Amino acid sequence: MVTSTAPEAELAPIEQAKKRAAFACGEKYVQSGCRLGVGSGSTVKYLVEYLKQGYQNGQLKDIICVPTSFLTKQWLIESGLPVSDLDAHPELDVCIDGADEVDGQFTCIKGGGGCLAQEKIVQTAAKHFYVIADYLKDSKHLGDRYPAVPIEVLPPASQPLLRSIPRAEGGSCQLRQATKKCGPVVTDNGNFIIDWQFEKNVSGRDWLAIQQRLANTPGIVETGLFIGCVDAVFFAYSDGSVKEIVNTKKH
């Protein structure tokens, strides 16, 4: 078992929860020889910490890490972990990533960090997909916790899509703006992000049908809807406990 070296007392309670979820998932599903898709975001940084410790102490041998973003790649390199890509390793054993929200049907919203297209590509290449998150991401219905579905779009299509998506699907759309530069957020792929703020409290919403309609729209690269792909979610709670919820429909 790999154990954390950093005192958890130095972390805020929510960060302690994220770290416990990442370590619990890594201990159960990452083994020597694993070809691993490594997600993006604040919770995944603790997974990288887990991998670093296991690799350095010899408990994790011959692992291959395929990152889902530029930042994750930098974390892996700085940690001395073996980094590759889907060109060299197009089939992965496991992908572990965070989420902005997970509902009761294991449907996820991802893309708050703007990496949703690469995250979905890597996830699709893996045999198994596990989500690590704190309890604040756990919801009964999408929209209870996170207000929008991120959609990666080609820049020339952004203005038409800002108008056509609400007309077709309801709600409203905003072009995500950068915080440390003038203008919109630009993804690792050179695209823009539209945040679709969908209408809440709509009963019987068919997220798969919505995903298919959006994916078939010219100019849309990918959405932050992850449907029917999660094997299990590790939720960590502020009292220190970690709960694994298994998607029995996939087992």
Automatic annotation (TrEMBL):
InterPro entries named in the record: NagB/RpiA_transferase-like, Ribose5P_isomerase_type_A
E.C. designation(s): 5.3.1.6
Pathway(s) per entry: Carbohydrate degradation; pentose phosphate pathway; D-ribose 5-phosphate from D-ribulose 5-phosphate (non-oxidative stage): step 1/1
Cellular component GO terms held in the UniProt record: cytoplasm
Keyword terms: Isomerase
Reactions this protein catalyses: aldehydo-D-ribose 5-phosphate = D-ribulose 5-phosphate
Keyword tRNA processing: no
One Gene Ontology term from the biological process aspect of the record: D-ribose metabolic process
Record has Isomerase as a keyword: yes
GO molecular function: ribose-5-phosphate isomerase activity
Signal peptide: none
A Pfam family annotated for this UniProt entry: Rib_5-P_isom_A
Family note: Belongs to the ribose 5-phosphate isomerase family.
PANTHER family: RIBOSE-5-PHOSPHATE ISOMERASE
Protein's name in the database: ribose-5-phosphate isomerase
Gene from which this protein is expressed: rpia-1
